[in-house]
Each structure stands twice: as C-alpha cells, then as structure tokens.
Amino acid sequence: MRRFLLIILVFSVCVQSLSTNVVVNIQSDGAISEISGQFIGVTIDTFELRYWKDEFFRSKRMIMLARALSPMYIRMGGTTADYTIFSTKGVYHTERNNLKVNAPLWDKINGFIQDTGWDFIYDLNSLLRFGNGSWDMNNAVQLIKYSQSKGYKLAGWELGNEPNVYKGHDVVSPSQLSEDYVKLRNILQHFLKGPGSNAINASTFHHYYGYEGNFNLLDFLNPKILDNLIPEINIAKKYTKEYCPEGMQVWLGETSSVWGEGKPGYSDRYVAGFMWLDKLGLSAQLGIDTVMRQDFYGGQYGLLNSDGFPNPDYWLTLLYKLLVGSKVLNKNMIEMKTKITPEHLRFYTHCTNNKRTNYTKGSITVYGMNLNAVDAAIYFDQYIESELHLYLLEPSDNYGLTSGNVSLNGKHLEITENGNIPNLLTPKVVRNPVIIPGFRFGFVVIPSANKNICY
Predict the structure, then answer these.
(1) For labelling, which of 4, 152, 333, 366 has a CA lying 20 to 30 Å from the CA of 119?
(2) Are strands 345-352 and 364-370 parallel, antiparallel or unpaired?
(3) pTM listed for this prediction
(4) Which SUPFAM superfamilies does the UniProt entry name for this protein (predicted)?
C-alpha cells in the first residue's frame, strides 16, 4: 500500500514541476460569431472519379462513416474539374488531361450522396470556351437538365477551380469570369424553379499552410504557421464585403494541411490534427460560414485512408461535430508562468452541442491544443469546484506524433467488431486543473457552466 501511494505522489510532483499553469476566463456577454450544423464540409477531388469503385462507396462501412458526419456539404471539384466533360452517351473514360463522366457514373455518385444524407455541390468546367473567350455553357446545361430529369437536388454549383492558376488560359480575365458567373446564375434560375434558384451565393477561397515538399514535422506545430490563416480570412472577408451583396457568406471552399495532396507520413497522421483543429477554431471565431476539408477520401490528407478506414482527423472531426455548438464565445487566457509562451496554447470556446449530446443548455465546450513539449495545467477559475469532462485525443501507439492511430482518454479508436462507430461521448471526469500533456489536443466540456448565452 505504501508503494502505491509513493508512486502517486511522485507523479503529482512531476506534473507540477514540468507544467505551466494557465487560467482561462470565459466571457459571456454575447456570442462573437455563430456557426451552423454544416460548418464543416468535405470534398472529393474530381480526380478521384478516375478510380471510382461503386462497391467501395456504397459499402455499409463507407455509408456509416459518412452519415455520422451529417449534416454536411460535400463539394466535388478541384483542378480536374476544369478538364471534365459530362456525356449522357458513351462510356466513362479519361483522355490525356481530360475526364469524361457518363450518365451511369453520375447516377452512382448521386446515389452515394443520397445514401449519406449530405448536400452536394458540384464544380463545373470553366475552361470550355468559345472563340471569343466567353464560357461555353452547353455541357453544363446538359448536366443540369439530366440531373433535373433524375430528380437529383444539388445544393449548389461552382464554376471553375482556382482561376488564378489556370495555365495557358490567360484570356479568362476577372471581368470575363464575372460574366460567366452571371450566365450560370441565369441557367440555374431557368431550370431550377422554386427556392433553389434563389439560394444565397457564397464567396469562397482556398487555403493551405504551404507546399508538402517544403514542410517538416515541426512546421505542423508552429504557431506562426498556424497564424498565417488569419490574414487570408481577413482578406477574403474584406473583398467579399466590398464587392458582394450585403450578408454574403464566406466559405473556406477547399482546405487542408499542405497542398500537393498532403505531406506523406504527416497529413494523415495524428500531428495533422493540430492544424485541422486550430483551423476550425480560427474560422469559427473569425466568422467563416463553412470550412470544406480536402478531402473525405483520397490523397495523403483524407479523413479516410485508401482502404476506407478512419485516419486520426476523422475521429477529431466527428468529436468536434458532437461536442461543439453553434455560438462562439470569447475567452481570456492568462499565463501564470513563462515555460510556455501564450501562442503555444491555443483554445477556443463555444456553447456545447446539446442536439447531439445529453449535455444541457448552458454548457460550454473549450477545445484546443498544447503545441509545446511541456505539460499545461489549465485552470477554469470561474468553475474551480465544478466537474469537468475531458476528451483528450492522443496517439495510441509508439509512433507519437506520426501515429496513424488515435486514442480517446486512453481508449484506442477503431470501428467495432460489429462494424459500428464506437461511442465517443465517454468523458474522463476531472476537476481543476485540467492537464493537457505536451503535444496533445482535445475538448473540455463544462456541464454546469450555466451560460445564459447558451440557452
């Protein structure tokens, strides 16, 4: 018995000597922004249509994993979208850089999306041009008419992908693109009667932290690199406000860790969660309406791996959707010691999602990360005696930051033997202080917060 007590005491001393004490104050004088249930969306790169396997996308496991994330937008687009042609006749095929999507493949795509309950956004080919440089809308009309005849109800349409990097198409000027967007709007209003034709447009931009070839492991943990998202959001909001109708939504229409299909061995591992969780926190705090993750499946940065099983970011995304509610609250973080600089501790606060959990109204959820090797002891001084619910995500094997597996409060996360998603709403009940180990991230729910703004 004495030996057991000694071990506990030594552990306690080690935690206190190696940790930095931080006080978090939650301000409750109002929400600084608000997100919807479809704040997180996903993409599937049009390039992946070259390898579409219907038995894979219609499998019980794939549908289950997708449905768990609903409600959600899915955007099918990317560079290949501007080299893709729809045809009701002939077979699906690829030719050089071009991709032909035939009617049976389009039916399979829509069948998968209908099974998931997601809302479909499709990126149309913008490089189909007449001799005078204007957009050739005929193929788009053919696709829209066919979709209408089949009863497919798409949530939205995009025209073109990243026109700033078009190669060999300098004739597509900003003014020409503006005319093309008007043409697309007129097409939709002609064919899609009812509220769909009057849906609010969204201004979108894409963001990556850099190119995969230039990134190393520590870059994924660098607060200065994480902060490069902030000016990009501010620029997108600035130009949307100046040149778009009042109230126009701003979407992060395609985003992940690094471009170039992600960094092998990093973008699909535990370490990628720091960038993803921080991006969600900053985007919600700064008023972005939807964040589209590149991507659901494919590349090195997919939520699912090539076999259709969850990467660590899938579990992080699902936990976010379960715990994080719509209203974004302000917070003050007061550093008490100097072992960790403030930028290495990044936390965000929302009302708790009481629609997908049993938490009562008034609860709040704090989520974030410790980007330093030193443990952080987090004190919520307004709730010093309150019961706190910790959801700590950690690598579940010896690979550490580059682990492809993740645990929740020490329990390895994987699809169950019965083929189901495990129950993630299994918190560790703690009290102040909450210890966030070095290089870890997670969520803390305060059930008894009783915040009026969260009712």
Answers:
(1) 366
(2) antiparallel
(3) 0.92
(4) (Trans)glycosidases
Span 36-325 CATH architecture:
Alpha-Beta Barrel (3.20)
E strand or H helix that includes residue 445: strand 440-446
Confirm whether 261 is a catalytic residue: no
- Among 48, 158, 254, 394, the active-site one is 254
Residue 92, C-beta contacts closer than 8 angstroms, at least 6 positions apart? 100, 101, 102, 104, 105
Fold of 20-32+327-454: Immunoglobulin-like (2.60.40)
Task: Give catalytic status of residue 254 as yes or no.
Answer: yes
Domain positions in the chain are 20-32+327-454, 36-325
Question: Residues 352, 454: contact at Cβ < 8 Å?
Answer: yes
pLDDT tens profile 64-100:
999 999 999 999 999 999 999 999 876 555 555 689 9
* pLDDT tens per residue, range 291-329: 999 999 988 999 999 899 999 999 999 999 999 999 999
Could you say which residues of the chain have pLDDT below 70? 1-19, 90-97, 168-171, 193-200, 335-342
69 φ/ψ angles, rounded to the nearest 5 degrees:
-90, -5
Rounded to an integer, what is the distance from CA 14 to the centroid of its chain? 36
